[in-house]
Amino acid sequence: MRPPTRITLSDIRTELPPLIHLALPLIAGELGWISMSLVDTIMLGHLPNSALAMSAAALAQVLFNTLCFGVGGVLLGLDTLISQALGAKQQHEANRWLLHGVVMAVALSALLIAIFAVTPVLLLHLPVDRAILAQAVPAMQGLNYGTLPLLLYFTFRRYLQAAHHGRPIAFALISANLVNAAGDWLLIFGHDWGHHWHVAAHTLTIPAFGVTGSSWSTSFARLYLMAVLLFAVWHADRKHHYGLLAGLRQRAYLRIEYQHLRRLFLLGAPAGASIFVEIAIFALVTSLIATFGQLPLAGHEVALQCASTTFMVPFAISSATSVRVGHAIGRMRIGIGTAANVIAAGWSGVGVGAAFMLCASVVLLTIPARIAHIFTPDPGVIAAAVPLLLIAAGFQFFDGVQITATGALRGAGNTHAPFITQLIAYWFVGMPLGILLGFHEKLGATGLWLGLLIALTCGAFAMCFFWRRTTRTLTLS
User: Fold this and answer.
1) Looking at residues 405-431, what average pLDDT do you find?
2) How confident is the model over 394-404, as pLDDT tens digits?
3) Does the pLDDT at position 189 exceed 90?
4) Do 105 and 75 meet the contact criterion of CB atoms below 8 Å apart?
5) In Å, how far are 30, 151, 218, 414, 428 from 146, measured between CA atoms?
6) What per-residue confidence (pLDDT) applies to 81?
7) How far apart are the first and last CA of the chain?
């Protein structure tokens, strides 16, 4: 038995430049993505009853995201399949995976749209303030309009980032913020231009739709995202001669194969389930905090938006790590790469993600009240948010480690270990402890967030263990 391959500092130095080169536009894109939600929350935070509006938006968004990102997470299997195909110089196979990804996205969207059609009826049975539900239900219906564009965006993005085309993704997400911000400005507050313009003898007036208007704006921005990335795929194919459009003219190329869909589903389902498990815990925490009233829920929304924003950086690094690991494994298969390349790609991603989150932790610890004030001037909401921001500072490092290690595992084709880890860490460790602290010990929202801190800490250690074990199997194969 050969000893495990050891990586050197030289291996890390060689890997870091291409990793960072790929990650930077993805980071810009992910920050652009979360900025849409931040803008929504900040604008709603300046409505007359900000606590109510922010609470309703928080409930609608977290429930929509739990289902949409969980079910749509099946498409994360494309990270492994496309990147490994490209690493092995199999462009035709990568194109075929994109085609099957589009088919899978359409099928999953149909399922989600049907689920969201009946979900509002179930929401009305939650033990939550009726005023919050009255605004959350139509907001969730408004978000449903963007379901198909969102999943198609996911699909096109996987193809582009696997081919190292990160700039179109960054451009799409950053520019989508302008679309979303304009929509929010028009639809949340309402405007009356009657004293300036007259259209067909009628005044030009847009009523204020509040939280519902914000959800419509988000859906339109997602339609824009899908359109931009579709154009980016077409442009990349024309410029680099990937053969995608030429292949679409061939009837055999367009054949949808059951075994391809099955392989994508079997690989992507654990990844989607892993995302579902992670987001669902935040959805449950949000629902439980909603029973405490508007102020705790609004404070939770502020802290959650901040934690989600910092998370986007290691999340983007995780995607880049998945691609780099997948490429390295593809090169190993054709004899032009080594196990050391794979190991260096994975640990480089984990290190960069953890380092950023340590910096984020310092910021959250230092100025929590100032950060909360950006979202709303309401002193009650700020007071509710500050303790949660301090807890978020405590789990930044562990959150960065667990998500980047997950990306490394996904690039190696291991999507089961993250699912099992997160299921146990969140639902069998973190959630019971959070409920115990929040309700039995009367710590409220703070207790529930302490449960999240414990879950993320456990998850980080477990993910590093599984990545280490995966690298050992590579060196012995």
Assistant:
1) 91
2) 999 999 999 99
3) no
4) yes
5) 18, 9, 8, 30, 33
6) 92
7) 10
Residue 228 and residue 156: Cα distance in Å, rounded? 10
Q: What is the 3-state secondary structure (H, E, C) of the chain?
A: CCCCCCCCHHHHHHHHHHHHHHHHHHHHHHHHHHHHHHHHHHHHCCCCCHHHHHHHHHHHHHHHHHHHHHHHHHHHHHHHHHHHHHHCCCHHHHHHHHHHHHHHHHHHHHHHHHHHHHHHHHHCCCCCCHHHHHHHHHHHHHHHCCHHHHHHHHHHHHHHHHCCCCHHHHHHHHHHHHHHHHHHHHHCCCEECCCCCEECCEECEECCCHHHHHHHHHHHHHHHHHHHHHHHHHHHHHHHCCCHHHHHCCCCCCCCCHHHHHHHHHHHHHHHHHHHHHHHHHHHHHHHHHCCCHHHHHHHHHHHHHHHHHHHHHHHHHHHHHHHHHHHHHHHHCCCCCHHHHHHHHHHHHHHHHHHHHHHHHHHHHCHHHHHHHHCCCHHHHHHHHHHHHHHHHHHHHHHHHHHHHHHHHHCCCCHHHHHHHHHHHHHHHHHHHHHHHHHCCCCHHHHHHHHHHHHHHHHHHHHHHHHHHHHHHHHC
* Degrees, nearest 5: CA angle 372-351-463: 90
Residue bearing tokens 């703070």: 446
pTM of the model: 0.76
Residue 208: what are its φ and ψ, rounded to 5°?
-85, 120
Position 263 confidence tier, pLDDT thresholds 50, 70, 90: very high
Q: Are 450 and 437 in contact (CB under 8 A)?
A: yes
pLDDT of 266-319, one tens digit each? 988 988 888 888 888 888 898 899 888 888 988 998 998 899 899 999 999 998
